[in-house]
């Protein structure tokens, strides 16, 4: 199981790095994907990320890949973090978070105040995470593309 997860992560990373575009375009797409991936809108994360990528003119593929920052292995901790942060910011009288409230429709059933608390908490977590992911991705993609360009130029000089 762990080996499979490592292979998937490596595949997604290489897929992201090999997008034929500027580092800014890819990093911007990844950042909006991370942003949408950390919001408590579970069935709509990829759609939201790709829509935001259109708006900010970032990579749609990178945006879709960026949503995997939230995955079935970490939904519960991320949503609990969103709940507690949102509840600290908006101290509404709402029911406590349980692990059965992972989908947006289930949160809305509990009331709009519960959903608002989750969204505010998600925004507080997602905004700095997206900013950090942009700069980390930008640096990593620039380094990868420079290494790849140097390797390809060495291969051409050998031929």
Write structural notes for this entry.
The chain has 159 residues and is mainly α. The protein is built from 7 helices and no strands. The protein is elongated, with a radius of gyration of 18 Å. It starts with a helix and ends with a helix. The model has no long low-confidence stretch (mean pLDDT 85).
Topology (elements, then pairings):
Blueprint: H1 2-17, H2 23-37, H3 45-56, H4 60-66, H5 75-89, H6 104-109, H7 112-158
Helix pairs in contact: 2-3, 2-4, 2-7, 3-4, 5-7
Give a quick summary of the entry.
By secondary structure, the chain is mainly α. It contains 7 helices and no strands. The model has no long low-confidence stretch (mean pLDDT 85).
């Amino acid at each position: 199981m762990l080996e499979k997860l490592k292979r998937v992560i490596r595949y997604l990373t290489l897929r992201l790095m090999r997008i034929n575009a500027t580092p800014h375009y890819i990093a911007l797409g990844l950042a909006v994907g991370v942003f949408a991936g950390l919001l408590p809108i579970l069935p709509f994360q990829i759609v939201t990320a790709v829509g935001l990528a259109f708006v900010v003119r970032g990579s749609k593929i990178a945006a879709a890949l960026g949503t995997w920052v939230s995955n079935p292995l970490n939904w519960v901790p991320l949503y609990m973090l969103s709940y507690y942060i949102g509840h600290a910011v908006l101290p509404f009288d709402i029911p406590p978070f349980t692990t059965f409230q992972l989908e947006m429709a289930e949160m809305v059933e509990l009331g709009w105040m519960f959903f608002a608390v989750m969204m505010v908490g998600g925004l507080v977590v997602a905004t700095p995470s997206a900013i950090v992911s942009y700069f980390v991705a930008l640096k990593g993609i620039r380094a990868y593309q420079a290494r790849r360009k140097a390797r390809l130029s060495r291969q051409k000089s050998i031929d």
